[in-house]
Amino acid sequence: MAGDPDFEYDVSEDDIKQVLSKFGVPKRDREKTMLLRVIRLITTDKFYEVKEDISGIPDYGFRNHDVATALEAQREQTRRQSGLKKLEQHGLVKRHEPKPQSSKSHWYVAREFRTALEEAPFDDSLPEPNPPEKTVTKLDLPYHDKKVKIGPGNHEQLAAECLENVVPQITEDPAIIHSDTGPGAERDKVKDGHQHLEIADSEYRFRAYPDILILDEYDHTLYFFESVISTNPFHETRVKEMLEPFRQARLNNITRSSPEFDFVFITLFPDVKTYRDHMLDLANNTYFWISNHPEKIRGHKKQELTDDVNSKVDLDLSR
């Protein structure tokens, strides 16, 4: 579109019109310049990277001000007619308003429209996750006495980044309880359909288990990591599955002499796009880390957290 700022839009104007058509948006609205400008903007990764970071508004949320600022070529018109209410009428965006006139009110792209984008009949407008720059086959970690084998896939390489760069910075005395990062990793511990893992001198039976499980022996915190290239972040059901062995252990009275654990769940994403694909699925009070924005581990709905142990995870990792 003539006069647009220098954004590298993820979806072309023609492609977005196709998706809007399949989503049921009438032709008269598909031709509206402002609606097209806004919908292309809010489905572009760069918009979320440069928008203002406001406490209490999630990374995937945005305000009218963010749209107006990004489309500064027609800023005054954008303020008066952002197109967001029209997009809301068509189910393309939704609004979260904690209370009337709240400063935390924000918009976000509706899950149904994100699905329509993913299923659109074009394959070159939405970027694929960036492949790792190098393939790691083994890791020599300062906190582990054996080299850790790493498979060649993107999933395993993302887990390798976590073991090498994230774990040392958020733990004091880490021990690898489980690492499903190589071919046939730890399959010898699978019995009767469960993964049997020893943690602090007690055995726990996991029917579902994470890609990486780390015990910080300094303060008895368990860190669960899930590497997500396409599916299976830490959603509410998966978190409950991870905690089930500890619930059963308490019921069976097998851990009376073992310390209580604090639990931290961190989903690993390769890039912002993959995070945005799964952001509405993440369980409350969990965390996520993005490989191409490695300087921070961010909390999902972290404002609801009260546990001091968990709050230490919201770290700046750039040092």
Structure commentary:
The protein is an alpha+beta fold. The protein folds into two domains: 13-118, Orthogonal Bundle (Arc Repressor Mutant, subunit A); 138-311, 3-Layer(aba) Sandwich (Trna Endonuclease, Chain: A, domain 1). Helix content is 32%, strand content 20%. The chain has twelve helices and 13 strands. It has helices at residues 13-22, 27-30, 33-42, 45-50, 64-70, 75-80, 84-89, 111-118, 154-170, 236-252, 272-278, 308-311, and strands spanning 93-96, 106-109, 138-139, 148-149, 174-179, 190-191, 194-199, 202-206, 212-216, 221-227, 262-269, 286-290, 293-300. It has a six-stranded mixed β-sheet. Strands 6-7-8 form a three-stranded antiparallel β-sheet. It has a two-stranded antiparallel sheet with strand order 1-2. The longest helix is centred in the middle third of the chain and has 17 residues, at 154-170. It is elongated and about 65 Å long.
Put the structure in a nutshell.
This protein has 319 residues and is α+β, with helices and mostly antiparallel strands. 32% of the residues lie in helices and 20% in strands.
What brief labels describe this structure?
single chain; 319 residues; alpha+beta; Arc Repressor Mutant, subunit A; 2 domains; six-stranded mixed sheet; three-stranded antiparallel sheet; 32% helix; elongated; magnesium ion binding; BsuBI/PstI_C_sf; endonuclease; Restrct_endonuc_II_BsuBI_C; type II site-specific deoxyribonuclease activity
